[in-house]
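Reproducibility note. Readers wishing to regenerate the assembly model reported in the main text can use the exact inputs given here. Chain order matters: entities are listed in the order in which they were concatenated for prediction.
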Amino acid sequence: AQSVTQPDIHITVSEGASLELRCNYSYGATPYLFWYVQSPGQGLQLLLKYFSGDTLVQGIKGFEAEFKRSQSSFNLRKPSVHWSDAAEYFCAVLNSGGSNYKLTFGKGTLLTVNP
Amino acid sequence: SAVISQKPSRDICQRGTSLTIQCQVDSQVTMMFWYRQQPGQSLTLIATANQGSEATYESGFVIDKFPISRPNLTFSTLTVSNMSPEDSSIYLCSVVFGEYGYGYTFGSGTRLTVV
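Running the prediction on these inputs yields the following structure tokens for the assembly.
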């Protein structure tokens, strides 16, 4: 069965610093990968996704992620973090076998941004 | 993309009662899902809402506890029945549009507290 691991439960960075959130997946076929962000009390907003093609994916809010098949990773990056980026971030892999479109999520990484 | 309206956005309910959550999409979508996010946890798929037929439930979720309706391609409801404090969670509706799950979108969620 597919699985997603986000090794970092909580990360704290200073505003303006660079950010990398780690995500490792386990999936037998070509993975379809997503990053979502959840602000306190809010639903999920899609940051970016990888389905095929260029392994460096650009998303909203200045985020990007790189798919590395050899490392089974899909890490999220941002060169300069803003205070408004403080939120919880979820990596997910899509099981698109047959008619099943189930998303399997990692446990999330909580990002705190210091002024 | 699809815009999802979910209501209520939050509720506080007495144990033993039931709550029905509504999910309305602004366009016809093939697939609709219900997820649960328990406090401090990641998201878990409850079931796939099938139009005109019984929902498909994931392991650990049963129809008697979480009855789901989907009368058409734009609307679904999830009922949380005979609630207990352990049902306190965020419940999210999600839809897939486009091929292969490319457009996987979430509603803003219903924050349920059972007292």
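We highlight two features of this model. The longest strand of chain B covers residues 89-97. Chain B touches chain A at residues 6, 31, 33, 35, 41-45, 48, 58, 90, 92, 94, 96, 100-102, 104-109, 111 (CB under 8 Å).
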